[in-house]
Structures are given as C-alpha cells and as structure tokens.
Amino acid sequence: MTPPLFPLPGGPQLNRRTFLAGSASFAAAALLSTHARGAVAAAPKFSAYPFSLGVASGDPAPDGVVLWTRLAPRPLENGGGMPPEPVEVAWQVAEDEAMTRVVQRGTATARPAWAHAVHVEVEGLRPDRWYWYQFKAGGEVSAKGRTRTMPPAGATPERLRFAFASCQKYEMGYYTAYEHMAREDLDLVVHLGDYIYEKGDANGAVRPHGMPEIFSLDDYRNRYALYKSDPALQAAHAMAPWIVTWDDHEVSNNYAGAIHDHPEENPPEKFLVRRAAGYQAYFEHMPLRRSALPSGPDMLLYRRLEFGRLASFHVLDTRQYRTDQPQGDGTKPPHPVLLDPRGTIMGDTQRAWLFDGLQRSSAAWNVLAQQVMVAPVDRTPGPVVGLSMDKWAGYEFERRRLLRHLRDRRIANPVVLTGDVHHNWANELAADPDRPDAPSVATEFVGTSISSNNDGEDQPAYLGALLAENPFVKYHNNERGYVRCEVRSQQWRTDFRTVPFVTRRGAPLQTRATYVVESGRPLLNRASLE
Predict the structure, then answer these.
(1) Are 194 and 160 in contact (CB under 8 A)?
(2) Measuring CA to CA, how many Å separate 110 from each of 122, 374, 466?
(3) Is 117 exposed, middle or buried (CB count within 10 Å of its CB: 0-12, 13-18, 19+)?
(4) Over the stretch 270-320, which tens digit does the pLDDT of each residue have?
(5) Which of 377, 339, 351 is nearest to 475 (CA)?
(6) Residues near 164 by Cβ (< 8 Å), separated by ≥ 6?
(7) Residue 385 CB-half CA count within 13 A
(8) Nearest 5°: phi and psi at 326?
(9) Domains identified in the chain and CATH numbers
(10) Average pLDDT over every residue of 411-436
(11) pTM of the model
(12) Are the CB atoms for 289 and 59 separated by under 8 Å?
C-alpha cells in the first residue's frame, strides 16, 4: 500500500529555528531549539495558495542540502498575505519523485520576522544521490522539487554538469532562458548575482511592474516575491540545487562596502540601514545555511563547496568588503591609484581565506564563482585605454596579487565564473599584464544576462575593435541566455547557450560557441558545435 502524502505526525522532528527580529538596524540572531516560543499555528487557513513562490534547494553537501520555501498567499502585499503569527510547515525528502520512499521528514516554523520563509538543513542523506522534496502547511502542499547531494569528499566523480546565470531584470524580458535551463541534465546551478533589481520600472519595460525604487525591508521582500512568482524561475529552482552569491542590485547599483553610488545623498549610516534590509530579504529568499544568517548590515556569504575531488567552488563576495571604486567609478584610463595596495575588492579576511583554500585544495579544478570581470578589458577604441573601475581592473593591485598567487602556488586548473556585464565572454588571464607574451594562468568565462538589457545580438558592430584592443578575449557575444559547463578530470567544456530574443515569448535555444580547457593548460580552445 502506498503511504499517504505527509503522514504526520510521527517522524523525527527537526530542531525548530526561532528568529529574533532586530531594531532599526535589523540585527538578528538564530536560536535553535526543540520547542518554538509562543503559539504556532499547526493547522492554518490561507486566503490563497501559500506556496506561490515555489520551492528551492541549495548549498549541497555529501550528507545533506538546504530546502527552502516561503508562505505567501498574496505575495505582492506587505507580509505576503500572512497573519503575524508563526506557522508550522512540514517537509519530507524521498528517494523517488512519487514520494513513496520517504527517508527524512520533520517540521519547521515559518516566522513573520523572517517573511514566513523556511530554511531546512537536511542531514543524514546518502552522498551523490538525487532526492525529491515537498512541503505542507495546513491542508496545502507545495510543488515537488528535485535536489542532490555532493559526492563523498575523497571521490573523483566521472563528470559534473552545471549551468551558471546572472542578471534577470524582470521588466526587461521573459525568463525564456530558464525555461530551457529547467530541461537540462544538470547537477547544479550557480547564480552569480543581480537576482533582483532595485530601481523602478526601466524604459522599454516588457513586463512593467509599476513598483518604485525599493528601500525598506517590505520593499525588498515584495521585489523578491515578484521575481520568484515567475514560473520559469521556479522550474529552474525545482530542477536542481543552486549555489548563490550576490552582486550590487540586490541592494543598490555599484555600491562598495558601506558606500552608496551617490554617497553625498546617502551617507554610510543611512545606506547601511538599507543594506541590512537588502541582506535580510536576500537570506529570506535564498536556499542558504544558517551560517549565512545576516546580523544587521553584515552577512557571511563567501564559502566553499566541494564536488568530491573533481571541483572545488570558491564562492566569493566582491561587494560587501570592497573599498570605494577609484577615480569616481565609471570607465577611466589607468592611473597609479589602481596599484594602491590599500584598494581591495575582497577585503583582507576573505582574501586570506581564498588563498589558503586554493593552496590547500586537492580538487582537479578550482572554480572561483564571483561577480565582476577579472580580465582588464579596454572598452575604448584607439590608443586611449578605458577600464571599468567597478570591475577587478579598478583594483589592479589585488587583481595581480590573485593571478600571481595562482601562478606562484601552482593552483590546479583555476577557472573564474563571472556575471554582471550582460554579455558572454571567454578570456585568458595572465599574471603579468605588462608583458604581451605573458602566459595565461587561468581562464575566465563570463555569462550574459537572463533578461537584462532586452534583446541582444550575436555579433555587435563593435566586436572587431573590441577583440583588436584585447587579444586575451577569445569570444564575445551580446545575446541573452546562460552558460553550461561539463567538467571531467582532464577537460573542462563550456557551452554558451543563448536565446535570440526575450522581449516576446517562445525564443529557441542555441549553442553559439563551445570552448574547451585541457587540464594543466589554461588556454581556450574553440570546439566545433555538435
């Protein structure tokens, strides 16, 4: 006889999380307890379907994964249409999609102080396995999600297949790329930032939302709810576990640490209140572990995830700890200030963590999952050089320090994954940019946007000049889409997967280019399309 869905009660109970909301600075702490404080609604009634934002999983480990959902029957209203009381949410994990072979189950508490979001850190699963999961609250059951655990620490899997994406401005186009991604055979998805955008409707909006620029915690929550209401994004989340990091638009454009893009209007003490709101809403809506729980305007997001001994993902945060962009931001010519050792995009603590982890790594491939371009791309034709101060080129001392560490410590097969710029790029990275013949020490794959900047084009008019100015750039494309990677012990393969338009539905998927990197040779080899 097939067991009923969610045979509650009976199974082992998960330790419930009690969140304490902070004051104006949104400072908070998580208390783990076997008993929730105060009354918890075990049989709530909802005004509409509460799992309107879907389900997700993330940060997989060999023995477990984080499961996420949020109760929001009216997701675009403040509070998501939920009463201001905690609600019991049941969850279960099964070995089959029909949910007949349940291996873990329990309950968690969705609390109003954290937008009735649920983060369940499941442990005790078998390594390198696919699982399915589901939530229940009252009489309502969520959609099913599929997730997986990482291989054992000492194992070398035959293959890892993942995709990475970024920059999904809702009003600028449809998430057709996610529709295609959800059909891929992937182990993981990596999101490199700009999950939401903070401004009001942009010019040329395809899907106008009518919301103004966001500042408060409720504002940020409602913006996430808008984005996560998209069925294609929900499908991509439900297909495989995600590894996420942010860039700038999760708070405000081009912010640097505690410094707003317009500091004269937003001094640090004012901006940090906004940053705290953005960070809390980000945590509430992402499948992150309690180690990332924000405390006011601070949130520990950089971390390391291992796919056995095949690949180590070093996930970076290049926003929270950086110094202000030099020369007033923007695109500027080279200047001695770029070599100031006090300028940093990572901060001392994160840099030390990264260098130590790279040096200790036993993985065949070391993946830097991060936000902004490492290659020092000159976007100004002719003899004048123009570098983006918001990218690693604006922090040239630290950029060179990173690349020389990769070279001098002989880090195995470093590959940089980048988002932010709404284009596809394939770059070779040299440790000494002052030497034209300096060998490459790493490769960088930059993914285009899901929808930001509306429709694109395969070969923009400026392409010839761009490649002539930057010989280390081996590929550039200006369409929308995502990047798919297949990793084996001796070879890395990258497919640039694009859609020709996002301003209307139904765009087909195409592979515009494929590049291969051989183990021990950080060079980009163009492969024929299959």
Answers:
(1) no
(2) 16, 40, 51
(3) buried
(4) 999 999 999 999 999 999 999 999 999 999 999 999 999 999 999 999 999
(5) 377
(6) 189, 190, 191, 192, 369, 417, 419, 445, 447, 482, 483, 485
(7) 11
(8) -75, 160
(9) 1-150 (2.60.40.380)
(10) 95
(11) 0.93
(12) yes
